[in-house]
Specification:
Blueprint: E1 3-6, H1 10-19, H2 30-39, E2 42-43, E3 46-50, E4 53-58, E5 61-65, E6 69-74, E7 83-84, H3 87-103, E8 108-113, H4 118-122, E9 126-128, E10 131-137, H5 142-148, H6 151-162, E11 165-169, H7 174-188, H8 195-205, E12 209-216, E13 219-229, E14 232-240, H9 249-263, E15 268-270, E16 274-275, H10 279-285, E17 290-293, E18 295-300, H11 315-323, H12 326-339
Parallel strand pairs: 6-8, 14-15
Antiparallel strand pairs: 1-3, 2-5, 3-4, 4-7, 5-6, 8-18, 9-18, 10-15, 10-16, 10-17, 11-12, 12-13, 13-14
Helix pairs in contact: 2-8, 6-9
């Protein structure tokens, strides 16, 4: 009879994930360590086992927010979802997640995946498809990818090249990455994650995690934190120094990320999650990737606040945040960011 375990040994978990075609980097057990150490969230990584064999996994974390309530999420700050060998395993994982949500007295349970989840649909979860990613097929090679780009995109990449931008890579670039990222987040009116959070992700994933940095005369102007899983490189977080947004820095670095993925032998570049019809969404849509809509399933035990950044209720807060001193947003931002799943 299948049984559910919480936080089983990471080796058997990762062996299952590595063998599943639908699994993503967000199913990797390293997220338990990264989210616990970097953001203070309690992991509840559920696995279905039968006679010692893993049949399905659901990574969850408890987010205890003093501002908004308690949430059980797969996974906070990005994606997660279920990876399972059969629908029975999916059923068991959804049932155990609902039980756990009641045990932990959370306001809502959220399962953020890529695929339809019939057990959640049958139990009255609400479906949200407002997030998407674009996947670029790299198998044609650099020359063919360059030729497939829009003329405007190629011109903006050249603008960055002509401005003397140069690429540097390495996890030692975390302080420069965070300075660029936190300044960019203030400019768009959002709280920043802490440098400690990104450091925990880099440490948890080791050589599969990397920082790509664009410099102009030694000055950091754009940066991305990328993570490799199997044959896919994902652009997880990034930003451009506000004064350099019009200088082609983001186009230059995105193109260099494609070239970096090719040099690593990757076959796919995942442009990263964005809200449908937002500015980042349209930027990513111009690179020729295939769009996938994420399927987020929400089950509310108690009515909770709509915490999406695009919520009109937060427009005033975003405007005020942009006017605060950068030093203040850098000190307050990480605490606030941890409160938002």
């Amino acid at each position: 009879m299948p049984e559910i375990e919480i936080n089983c040994d990471c080796r058997s978990w990762n062996e299952f994930v590595s063998a599943r075609a639908e699994a993503t980097l967000f199913h990797h057990f390293a997220w338990a360590e990264a989210l616990s150490r970097g953001a203070g969230h309690q992991p509840y990584f559920l696995s279905v086992k039968e006679r010692g064999e893993v049949l399905g996994v659901l990574p969850l974390c408890l987010v205890k927010s003093r501002l908004f309530g308690r949430f059980l999420v797969s996974l906070p700050h990005y994606l997660g979802g279920i990876s399972a060998a059969n629908e029975q395993a999916e059923e068991l994982l959804v049932e155990r997640a609902l039980d756990l949500a009641r045990e932990l007295s959370v306001d809502s349970l959220e399962i953020r995946g890529n695929n339809p989840l019939p057990p959640a649909e049958r139990r009255g979860f609400r479906l949200d498809e407002r997030k998407s990613s674009f996947l670029i097929d790299l198998t044609a090679g650099e020359e063919a990818i360059w030729g497939s780009l829009r003329k405007q995109t190629r011109n903006r990449i050249r603008k960055g090249q002509q401005a003397g931008l140069a690429l540097e890579a390495g996890d030692h670039l975390l302080p420069q990455f965070w300075r660029v990222f936190s300044a960019n987040m203030r400019a768009i009116g959002s709280p920043t994650f802490s440098a400690r959070f990104f450091g925990a992700v880099l440490e948890a994933f080791g050589e599969d995690a990397q920082i790509l940095l664009a410099r102009q005369n030694q000055r950091p102007v754009a940066a991305k934190l990328v993570l490799r899983f199997r044959d896919t490189l994902t652009l997880l977080w990034g930003g451009t120094a506000p004064r350099d947004k019009s200088e082609g820095a983001n186009y230059y670095l995105t193109w260099e990320a494609i070239r970096y993925a090719l040099s690593c032998g990757c076959r796919v570049l995942d442009m990263g999650r964005s809200t449908v019809d937002s500015g980042p969404y349209f930027f990513k849509s111009h690179w020729g990737g295939r769009e996938i809509r994420h399927r987020w399933y929400l089950y509310e035990h108690r009515r909770s606040a709509e915490l999406r950044a695009e919520n009109p209720r937060f427009r005033l807060a975003r405007r005020l945040w942009r006017r605060l001193p950068l030093s203040l947003t850098r000190s307050l931002g990480p605490w606030i960011a941890r409160q938002i799943p």
